[in-house]
Amino acid sequence: MTKDDFYYWRLFATGLSFFNFGLGGLILRFFIFPILSLAPGSPQTRHKRARKVIHWAMRLFIGQMRWLGVLTYDAERVKTTLQRPGQLIIANHPSLIDVVFLISFVPNANCIVRSGLFINPFTRGPLANAGYIPNRDATQLIDDCASTLAASDSLIIFPEGTRTPPGCKKPKLQRGAANIALAANIEPTPITIKCDPPTLRKGEKWYQIPYNRPHWTFDAGEPLGIPGEGSTPKAARELTKTFSHYFFPEVPQ
């Protein structure tokens, strides 16, 4: 294949976009959130205020990448669905910026993030201010997620736990999303994400861009029913299988 579709411009613009992402994280941490902290309100109000700021920052980041010609996307089939509060949103995870897209679509999204990001100078400020949930103790994690859903906040989870490795047709799903759905007694809303041609996959560097401009598509499905037997290991296994069938239906179990 030849390097067309403004390849070298997209390579430069991709680097510029991620540089601006890091710069934006520092601006949020050292300028925006200190100002927001002066406003009155309960911890929950402060978290929602910070999430709204992050939501608009992610919209700006995605809009910048689209304007620069780095990518295109179609989210018309999920925008209405993702506006509803208090949803457990589960999605497959083909690329690095999937969560950025989803946060840009959901006004008050909570997320589970790697605990290491809470010590990263670019991300720890926004994460702490937004009340995002670190993936530390499993029991505490489930309790925190159930609490955020009970407060009518939406929660974004990737059952794979990490990006899908290149060439992997049937990634192994973790049971965390199922355990959270069962503990909160809530039917998850599935979002299918596709990226063509693939880019920003697990193990790929930001500069390993495809020869053609990548296009993301997002589709929302009906809420997935949960077993009626309560939060048990068997129910978590069955629900995880349901997730796997939904996101990877063409792959034999």
TrEMBL record:
Pfam families xrefs: Acyltransferase
InterPro entries: Plipid/glycerol_acylTrfase
Gene Ontology terms: biological process: phosphatidic acid biosynthetic process
Keywords: Acyltransferase, Membrane, Transferase, Transmembrane, Transmembrane helix
GO molecular function, one term: 1-acylglycerol-3-phosphate O-acyltransferase activity
Domain (Phospholipid/glycerol acyltransferase) ranges: 87-196
Transmembrane spans: 6-32
Pathway recorded for this protein: Lipid metabolism
Highest taxon, organism lineage: Bacteria
Name of the protein: Phospholipid/glycerol acyltransferase domain-containing protein
